[in-house]
C-alpha cells in the first residue's frame, strides 16, 4: 500500500540508518490516519474494555455478595465488612505507582497478562474462604496484583493514541466500569438464584463464577496485545511507520523523551498541577467507590426493605447504563473541542444535584431518580481527568510519574469510601451522601483552577511571553523541553 502522505517526508528522512523504522510525516486528520485509528481501535479497545470490566467487577462484586449472606457466613460484625472492602486499597495504593514505572521495562504484553491471570486466580479463590481473616488476605492480595492494571492501560493507550483521541479511549475504560456495574448486577441477579446449590451460599457462587473468566482473559491478552506501534503484528510495515511518526508529531517527542528519565519524574513531583489533579481525583474516586460498591445497599434502603435482592440488583442496571452513555457523549464532545476542564465541571454538577436530592426528605421515586443523576457525572468526573493530565505530559518519565501520582492518591479514597456507608447509618446514609457531595464540589473547583491555569499559560505562550527562553536553541533542544517549551500548548 502506498501512503498518500509520503511526499511530505522531512528532507532528512532519507538519512536513516539501516534497520531504522522509516519515519513518515502524516497529514493530521487524513483519511489514511482515520483508517489507521479505526484499525487500532479494532485490535486494542475490545481487549482493554474487557480487562477493565473484569478488574472492576472482581473488585466491587463484594457489594453484591453482601446481599447473599456473606457477613453471616464469615461471622462479620460491626464495621468488619467496611474494613474488608477498604483493605484492598492498602496494597492497591502501594503497588500502583511502581507498576507504572516498570511496565515499559517488562513490556505491556507480559506485564498486563501476568497480573490479569494472577488476580483472576485470587478473585476466584475468594469465593471459597472459610473465615473473615481469609477474606482479608484475599482482598490484600487482590489489591496488590490489580494495582498495575488501570495505570498500565492508561499509559499503554498513550503509546498508540494522540491527545486528541485519548479521552474517548480512556472513556471506554470507564464505560467498561459502568458495564461492570450493570453486568455485575445482572449476573448477581441470575447467580443469586444459585443460593443454596451444593450447599453453598449465593455470595460464593457470585465470586467464583465472576472470577474464572478473568483467568481466561489473561491468557488471551498475552496473544492479543502488542507492546507498541512499532511491534504491532496487525499493522503493515508502512502502517507501523505511520503510527510511530504521528505519535512523534503529536508530542513533538524525541528519542530521549520516549525513555524514562528520573529528572522527568522529578518534574512531575514538583509540578503543582499534578497535585491539584490528584486532590480532585481523590474527591471524585470517593464518589466512584462509594457509589459502585454500595449502590445495591443504597437502593435497598430507598425501597425500605420492600424490594427483594433480585429486584435491587435489577434496579442498579439502568443507573450504570446512563453513566456509560453520559461518559461517551461527554468524551466525544471533549475530544472534538479539546476542552477537558469545562466539560468535566459542567457535567459533574448533575452528581451534586443527585446527592442533594438523596439527602432531602423526598419520596422513594425521587431518591431513585437521584441515583441516575449521580451516575450521569460519575464516570465523567473520574475518567476525563485521567486523559487530561497525561496528554499534557509529552515526556514519558513525567507522564508515567504524574499518572501514577494521580491514580495513587485517587485510589486512596478506596480506603475512606466504605466507611462513609456503615450499616448503622442505613437506610438513608446522610453522612455518606453529605461527604460525597462536599468532595465532588471540591473536585469541580480543582478542575476549574486547572482549566484557568492552562488557559493562562497557553495565552501567554501565544503572545510570545516566553520566547526569550529558547533564543539561540536549535529545534531538537526545544523539543527536549517537553511541556516546558514555549511552543507547547496544553489541552485545557
TrEMBL record:
User: What's the chief localization of this chain?
Assistant: membrane
Q: Which PROSITE patterns does this entry report, sorted A to Z? A: MFS
Region (Disordered) residue ranges read 1-22
| Keyword annotations of the record | Membrane, Transmembrane, Transmembrane helix, Transport
Q: Which GO terms describe its cellular component?
A: membrane
Specify the domain of life of the species encoding this protein.
Eukaryota
Q: Which InterPro entries match?
A: MFS, MFS_dom, MFS_trans_sf
An MF annotation (GO) of this entry: transmembrane transporter activity
The protein here is known as Similar to Uncharacterized transporter C11D3.18C acc. no. Q10097
What does the organism's lineage look like at the top? Eukaryota, Fungi, Dikarya, Ascomycota, Pezizomycotina
